[in-house]
Amino acid sequence: MMLDQKTIAVNQYHSLRHINQSEWNLPIFSQPLLDYELLDIIEEAHVNNLQHFYFQLLNSQKSVIGRANAYIALTDFATLESGMSPAVIKVIQGVKKLFPGFLAFNMLECGFFTTLGEGVEACEPQYKPAAIQAVAQEMEKLTKSHKVDFLFFRDIPLEAYETYKQILMPMGYLPTLGFPNAVLELAQDNFAAFLQTFNSKERLKLKNSLLFKEKFNIECKIIKDYEHLSPELAKLWKNVYQGSKDYSREFLDEQFFYTCSQVLKEQSEVITFWSEGQLIAFMLNLFNRDEYFVLDWGVDYEFQYYRQANLYRAASLLSIDQAIKHNKKRVAFGITNYIPKKLVNATIHPLVYFVKHLNNPLLTYALAAGMKGQIVQPDFGDFWQLHPQLHQYQELDNFIAQEQSSFFQQKFSLKIPKRKF
To answer: Which domains does the chain show, CATH number per domain?
Structure first.
């Protein structure tokens, strides 16, 4: 049975402290990122000083049929440099020195700030359109009491594209391409069997990356209680943050890592690498339901064997081993740095954003078109073979460009009256 949005009531909360955990984590739901514990680490650690909004969706019988996560974040689009020419980057950096707020906007986003996934969930597929519309309308209401420049639905998989389009484009949203997610589906029940899925040359390369002890005398420890390491984790993470040219929006400090260890004692672990008693690299991973999330990476670039040891690949393989041991069905490696993720057979999944300026369609188009140019898309490899039902999107860049062009023509084309003779 389809639900009309008018039949949905929405309970809105500004903090998880006002929500009963058992009433939020209902067994009818399956999106692991929307579970209370994983949302709580972001709120509890005050990441980027976000303003949080949690939506509980109820039908006319007052039964919960959906939930959603949103937040207001200050986003500096000058940091999305991957698709810009060096000349443009230089100009923007010069302007930013004079006007620090240039290209910085308040975004009201539905999604997740530090991970990738849909921020709206309905307990049944037929309820999804009404759930999306209800959340979109709640977000519109929030703009009347909060300073917001743009509205944003993040990380929409292509399977759900048409559903979101039918609801959001009539409301003034426009699609654009986001950062893809690298996901590895796990079909093996042990790590040795996973390695057997590679040919002998690739398998040898992967095995060699695990010889960090034999080659470089590097110790590996997998630690579940890691709050005492928070200062060192934050320092190593900052190295990667400062060196990133692809994406550097969130800022994670000691409090974030401490909170992860405290809140997710049974749902997180950190893979650490040590040389002569010093922590030189780590990979922080979370796990929930069927998912294993590779969340953050940090490294000491000054370590003498940094390049030779290839610890990122080693940490990725050890993460896969851990995911199998935890009986997870997939590993989500997240955005950027796609080449090493492909080397462990992760599939690159394209994701779409729907964006809208609060009251100016021209700025909606400018943001959507600008982001499409700024976020460079990788080769999606075997994704299209694995998802033949999505073949209509295979020329994805052209498809989104056409959607944006149609929006522009509808909104801004001049209607020339017919001449009378």
So the answer is: 5-179+352-412 (3.40.630.30), 183-348 (3.40.630.30)
